[in-house]
Amino acid sequence: MSPEVEKKLGAAVERMPAFPKSVQRVLELTRNINCLPRELVGVIEKDPVMTVKILKVINSAAFALPNKMTSINQSVVYLGLNTVKNMALSFAAVGILPRTNAAGFDVQKYLMHSLTVASIARALANHQVVGDVDPGDCYIAGLLHDFGKVVFAQFMPEEFKTALLYCQEQGVPLHVAEAAVIGADHTVVGSMLAERWQFPPALVACIRNHHQEAGQDAMGDCLRMADQICRYRQFGDAGNPYRAGESTVAPQRFGQDLEAVIASLGDLDKFVAEAQSFAQVEAA
């Protein structure tokens, strides 16, 4: 990456909005392993907009809870601290997405892709790499892994539009097209943004390396596998379509058969429903 490109990316990242103060505080608290649930609940409950959104999703058909949740504290007891924390971060990330851009990048389809990748990455961590990685971290990695594309679409729209066309016309992965057109890909600018938002180093590295060779770490492999499944099944669209004949990513951890990995997850509709519930609440 040339100094000129690095400077341009840095300026674009600086122009992205910061998370709301309440969510910045959530991040600070959850970096401490001794964080008490009541501290997190107290921060979220002071943000009425965030509280309403979380309760609306929890009480949606996607979660199918037997009883209606009426408070954040009740939600933490029933669903766990990590689930509620991830909801807060999800709404913060979704809330700063631009509605339109000059690159013609479909933000709603991108959002559905990211939210579904997040849910499937968490499921893979829960069921196939148990104990190797925090499923909640895999969810956040899935949610944010392509955020660099949003930065490109918003602040480097002409270059990104050209990269999207290059990807389609040449039949190459989007990150390869971005590198050819822009001089760096979305993993670079995405990791810069995650660092600015003060996410843990392991998460920053996962975003930076998610198009690198599989097998290095469990979080990265869960993210790669979830991303491939969502592109294969066309859950949303982040500008990087599945190409026929792609090898299964992370074969050391998940095997060579993509359909078998998908079958192990059960009905994928539940992941799509969860993603739709987030997207619909944010759009309301």
Task: Write up what this structure looks like.
The chain has 284 residues and is mainly alpha-helical. The chain has 2 domains: 197 residues, Hypothetical protein af1432; 78 residues, no CATH class. It contains 17 helices and no strands. The protein is globular, with a radius of gyration of 18 Å.
The portion of residues forming beta strands comes to: under 5%
The SSE string, one letter per element, is HHHHHHHHHHHHHHHHH
Shape: globular
Question: How confident overall, as mean pLDDT?
Answer: 90
Q: How many structural domains are formed by the residues?
A: 2
Architecture (CATH level 2) name of the largest domain:
Orthogonal Bundle
Keywords, separated by commas or semicolons:
284 residues; mainly alpha; 2 domains
Write the SSE topology.
Elements: H1 3-15, H2 21-30, H3 37-45, H4 48-58, H5 72-79, H6 81-95, H7 107-127, H8 135-144, H9 147-155, H10 157-170, H11 174-181, H12 186-196, H13 201-209, H14 218-232, H15 251-254, H16 258-264, H17 269-283
Helix pairs in contact: 1-12, 2-3, 2-6, 5-6, 6-8, 7-8, 7-14, 7-17, 8-14, 9-10, 9-12, 10-11, 12-13
